[in-house]
User: Fold these one by one.
Assistant:
Number 1:
Amino acid sequence: MKQLKNKLAAGFVALFAFGTTPVIADETCQSPYMPKITGQEEFVYVWTLGEAGVGDESDKLVTVDVRPESDSYGKVIASLSVGGLNEAHHGGFSADRRYFWAGGLDTNKIFIFDIHSDAAKPKLHKVVDSFVKDSGGAVGPHTFYGLPGRMMITALSNDKDHGGRTALVEYTNEGDYVATYWMPTAENPQGAKIDSPVVDGFGYDVRALIRKNIMLTSSFTGWSNYMMDFGKMLKDEAAMKRFGQTVVQWDLHTRQPKKVMHVPGAPLEIRFPWGPNSNYAFTTTALTSKLWLIHEDDEGEWHSKPVADIGDPSKVPLPVDISIAADDQHLWINSFLDGMTRLFDISDPHAPKQVYEKKIASQVNMVSQSWDGKRVYFTSSLLANWDKKGADNEQFLKAYDWNGKELIEKFSIDFHKEGLGRAHIMRFGSSKLYSS
Amino acid sequence: MKYAVLSNGNLEGSQRRLGASLLVSFGVLLIAGIGLAVGTRDWRQEEQVYPVIAEAGNFADLFEKTEEYNFDPPVPGSYALPPLKQAPDGQVLDFVGRETELAGLLKGKISLVSFVYVLCSDENGCPIAMSTLFNIHEASAELPALRDDVQLVTISFDPERDTPEAMASFAYPVLSDAEKESKLDWRFLTTSGNRALKPIIDGFGQAIDRSGDEDVINHLLRMYLVDRSGRIRNVYGLGMIDPRLLMTDIETLMMEEVS
């Protein structure tokens, strides 16, 4: 049957606003089901951990004005405290981009913010506080990946042993529980093909390639580690063995695991390219400091292989967030412990090459870029108990322009001086997404 | 080429009220119809008992794999479609202006529900939904017993312009189809106004956004699978409007009923 041509070309073009112009857009790392900001983002939302001795010491959603013509450009224009500490970590928009879901890895609370009524001033719409009970024991809601009508959430742990075995948990857009999909394990592979000496059942990120009906999940570590003091954990041999070593390929439509691949060293963020014929994804391993390619061969089989070192792996720079350019030619890779960002040329995904690096600060975690790649934002916090101590505990949002050769700082917000806390995940907002 | 002939005839008869915009919409249907490819199996030669899935093979086999949906669909019945929520009720108008309750229309059959507006010409919007539903409607002639269990429901979210008369024109190719009695019922519905519409689109979760251009209603393409009890069992967006997936989900619901 003949379908309309080009309907998926140029990414998944969304239909919301900017007058009649279709809107496509960190933008580069979001759910493809979602309307994107291809022009200038207006706001950066920062899900921020409360910190002892800083402001109200509570987690909060911070809104920063990034409209270049605005009098408040580069300033915090809203701060919405949720009261208390939850180990605020990641968040994501619903597929209609009207709500921002943000999780707490310790309390398991999910905060759903309304960002469409007033994009400059989010308001708390709903709190889901039954995640563990709903899911049947999953702990640590991490990635929030918007699917039509629902939210797919990866968990990091479980309430039996607080280790890394965990699940995917699905909710409706209204915040009602739908289903739990436990990760395949050695004891219960759930029909998945095993291509790994370890089948750990751990989880971290989730991303999908709709055109191939593929969903990939990565694997980190459980509550007992991510809530432990970082220095203490490094000296704990048993704890250091409790890190993920797998990437799982799923059937996106049925949510059934299809294959377990070996990716040792705690594979974290997963990014698919946007090209209409690009059947691969990237991930980085935190402990082994490698860039991995998850790719499909000519027979339709998916495989994993390391394709580049990130910095000097012997120095354990600890790669964290990554951001792929909309044209699939470059990948920003942050590493936490050395505070560096590195840009890799990924035009040949099987042989990426570093083309640029810059020290952002004493520590750096998240990176988000605009759809056109000209603006790049960085934040600082990894986990409350893993962030550096003392003067090295810099907490910030930094904005840069990327001119193709170097990063040029536009503004920096000190989250300590502003009384905010530890800056974690960023997402872009725009009032133009909602024209009525 | 029966689909090409059918579509041409319908185009000539459908130009009266909605002019160019309608041509755009049905142009899409025409293109899709010409390209329709159905399986070679002669379903009519086989015993048609409920469920029609008995001995029938997979519904998805009616359609070919495409580059846009470059995978083999899952085996029907091999997975679950957990209920998401109850589909909303509301007063709707059929194409002759009769008012009825949406919940009553949905009850008893598995429904593929789509939201459109007639003037929509965005290639990533309503035309995709309509062309896919048109192809499913055409292909359903190969499974005549399926009309007892499955229906297509299209609801306008532009009630001011999409009057019952406008919907009748929009639906002309389907309503005038000489073979429609062997195909799925396809209900074309509108509402008396935005007040009647709001609980329906809010209940389904179909976000729409009126822009400064009054001719354009920004929206995200969504389609909904509703079971016989009126529960939403799946939500589809751009990139998921694969007739094989839609038919596999329908088959899965039917298998669930007899399991």
Number 2:
Amino acid sequence: MYDVCIIGSGAGGSPIAYELSNAGFKVVVLEKGKLYDESTFNKDEIAVCRRDMFTPPLGEQKHIINEYSPSGKITRYDGEKSGWSFWNGSMVGGSSNLMSGYFHRMKPNDFKLLSAYGKIKGANVVDWCISYETLEPYYEKVEKVIGVSGKIVKHKYQEPRSTPDFPYPMLETNGVTKWFDVACEKLKFTPIPTPRAILSMNALGRNGCYYSNFCGSYGCASGAKGSARAALLQKCKAKVITDAFVYKLDAKDGKVVRAHYYTKHKIPHMINAKIFVLSAQAIESSRLLLNSKSKEFPNGLANSSGELGKNLIFSAGGSGSGRFIFEKLTKEQQKELMQAGLFFNRSLQGWYEYTDGGKTYKGGTIDFLFEHQNLISRVNREIYDDEGNLLWGDKLAEKIDKTLTTSRVLTFEVFNDWLPTDHCNVAVDEKETDMWGVPVGVINLNSHPQDLEVGEYLAKHAVEVLKQMGAVEIDSSISSSPPPNLVAGGCRFGNDPKTSVLDKNCKAHDLDNLYVTDASFMPTGGSVPYTWTIYANSFRVADIIKKELLLV
Amino acid sequence: MSFTNRRNFLKAGVLSSAVVIMSGCSVFGITTTRNTIKVLENDLFPKANELGIDTADYISIILRHPRVTQEDKRFLKNGAKWLNETSVEMFQKQYTKLSFEKRQLILKNITSTEWGNSWCSTVLGYTFEAAFGDPIYGGNNKEAGWKWLAFEGGKPRPTEVYL
């Protein structure tokens, strides 16, 4: 029998696999997707971004999505018919293979949103049951084990650190970052070199970044990106079984006893283990537990509280952009602008907390980056004229040529809290099933009005920077559309078994040996991308499980 | 007829790579999706031809690609049919047999409709995939599309076509 069975091989599961197998325990990881690695990753835009090779076809696996409007109207979308996909990386290492690796820690106040900022009408805001201080050593561990590069710059909301700086120096940046820094100085903003989960040098048995120009959405062919696969699974002896879709967990006498899984050809298998760790990404983890109902757990496994699937959150915010055109630049600046491969890597956190109209708000983070260099996508954006008419022939070719060879777009992304609400949650559909005949997940979507207000406030400052830099065609779009790669909640952790699914160790209140270690545990998400926090928390839980196994 | 109705109406039809062109209730002629789209692609984006890039064969990959939905494939084929039917209505000839000037008039006509605008932008999208995707897919001859836009393809390059 295995000591530990982990379901899902992404950022939530792999730290457990790494720590426990390296400590001598027998660990198995069940992964629905295939194995891709440095030898098979490439930069094929058609395969990766146009045919979505790393996510399941929606005709085989989908979600049902219910969108709540402020008026209370619900619009239902069938994922297959609408093409609305909530899948990320279905592969060994999960979506961490495809991340851009923008790594920010959550701030101390993110762990106590209720205490620090008070109740918000219509939002289920609570404090976390652990503090920043509890997680800090694990944030540091991630810097070292996953590999985070950057440079600490003192600013108002710099979180406390146990080490003075990152273990790996900053990645190389494009010359335009100098324009950004000058603009920020004039505006009295503090630019922060964006920390990245990308090795800037050969280390940890992996190659440093080779500046391929195609980072986000693509697998890394050098191993520099700190994916769960490259940094952890390839550095440990945990057994990884691919093509293993776990559809049910059996529980008896307060313990999970086995996991059932199908191969893609629907051949059923099962695995027994002493401890089970669920990390299939927030929506799918809740779905599996809801689909694992039994006589003992009629409302779904680990759901005596009725809280399973509730308080699903995303990262709120949006994005914006500005274009730099040759006509306004010197020859030298034109050359700097078009320099390919190097990163932009600048962030602003000066409004992580702000006061507006006499009220103090939790704000967020703004990351700046160049427009993705995918050529087909960029060309496709040029097919309409300013009046929205379709262009073709020579006019179209001229527009493509001018836009792509004499200008470049700098974009920004805003990250702020997606406040948890009653209408944003995960359920399972009573009729619709996937290719294995298993009920599909239902994603009920709702956003709180404050999410948009905060996002707009932050975007306003990003726009100021773009204006100061001399960009044209400046645009921003803050919306309540959920980013499928930034999802959390559904198995909230807390001290009270009546109001939470997991305890402070991320173990199910109802079961002695079931842990959930993807982003499901998060009651609130902070105003940063989640991956660093998922990694850190999973390392924390790995220590807890290790102690438990040593006691057995 | 709106794009949605026309699309839905033809969803139930029997489809093949042969496109039957109707004129009223009579069969006007038969052509193929590939032939129609080949001429159309050159009208929409003649730059590819100038660069020595053949984008026509790529449509055959799309029409059999398991990752392209049946509905999208149907739309590609139906669009070719509707384009030809519009040609017959306006000039009593298939699109591929019209002069350049008349084809331009057809394009102006159909891009003012919802289906025509959507279909032409879809065809353009696949044309761009052929012209600016990795040369392994058969288009982007000697990286001519990339060179035109001073673009360097990401590395490593794919060693096989993703089908």
